[in-house]
Write a structure and sequence with these properties.
The chain has 270 residues and is α/β, with parallel strands linked by helices. It has twelve helices and twelve strands. The strands form three sheets. Strands 4-3-1-2-11-12 form a six-stranded parallel beta sheet, sandwiched between helices. A four-stranded parallel beta sheet has the order 8-6-9-10, sandwiched between helices. Strands 5-7 form a two-stranded parallel ribbon. Helix 1 crosses helix 11 and helix 9 runs parallel beside helix 10.
């Protein structure tokens, strides 16, 4: 009954944490491609190849359903994977759609035509690859009309977070928010379009101002997954064991993850 969680590094642990809190008995297999992180500066073909390799490792670990808890992979690889690569008895899902459903106040899986929504001005903070893909705008257009999205590529932020340099990370958040607000002075909502960014949610909120509603993905994706598994119980894979896998050095990644989640996490080689 295991579910796989894929990320290019440690950011997906923010999604893992919320899924674990909501569904404590669900076995989870986490795969971090730390050897090739960050994905945000890679080209689409490279991201696709690496994401397929990681998803296959999770299938091999007994996961029939894999969550791409990496916005860059969701933006650059997911649709191509679903159309050309994912086996008929497996599923790979991204993290954009649950976030957009929350933003547009839709129920999970609501496929009705796009409609007017109250939120008209949205700031998107994401990696350069995610911004370049325009995947968020594409998925939003299927669900809402008349929404202006201003996207800010947040170069360097993932590296600072992974390195544990929170002083640099906070400075980068303020710099990126300032850059976006020069183009969109009064956003109504902000999307933290990378699973690393919830760790800096307070810094984003402070820089944006208290009147801006900030959306991050952990709790939203966890609730969406819970709903999906209730509707599709057959997608609980045969795996029974929770584990953490990495393409990087297991000891180094374990130490970083332990600091990340503030509890002991032990990775093993993928």
């Amino acid at each position: 009954m295991a579910v796989g969680i894929f990320d290019s590094g440690l950011g997906g642990l923010t999604v893992y944490r919320e899924i674990r809190a909501l569904m404590p008995d669900l076995p989870l297999v986490y795969y971090g491609d730390n050897a090739h992180a960050p994905y945000g500066v890679r080209d689409a073909d490279d991201i696709y190849d690496l994401t397929c390799k990681g998803a296959q490792r999770l299938f091999d670990a007994g996961c029939d359903l894999v969550i791409l808890a990496c916005n860059t992979a969701s933006a650059a690889a997911l649709r191509r994977m679903q159309e050309n690569w994912v086996p008929a008895d497996k599923r790979v899902l991204g993290v954009f759609v649950p976030l957009i459903e929350a933003l547009t106040e839709r129920s999970w899986g609501d496929n009705s035509p796009p409609r007017e929504v109250d939120t008209k001005h949205v700031a998107l903070f994401a990696t350069p690859s995610t911004v370049a893909s325009r995947a968020f705008q594409r998925e939003l257009a299927f669900r809402a009309v008349g929404v202006d999205v201003e996207a800010q590529p947040c170069g360097g932020l993932v590296d600072a977070i992974e390195d544990g340099d929170m002083i640099l990370a906070e400075a980068l958040v303020r710099s990126h928010v300032d850059a976006l607000k020069r183009r969109m002075p009064h956003p109504q909502a902000a999307i933290l379009g990378c699973t690393h960014y919830p760790l800096m949610a307070e810094a984003f909120q402070d820089a944006l101002g208290k009147d801006v509603k900030v959306f991050s993905q952990g709790k939203i994706v966890a609730r969406s997954l819970q709903d999906y598994l209730q509707r599709h119980p057959e997608m609980r894979g045969p795996g029974q064991k929770s584990m953490f896998l990495t393409t990087g050095d297991p000891q180094t990644v374990s130490d970083q993850a332990t600091r990340f989640l503030k509890r002991e996490i032990r990775f093993q080689s993928a």
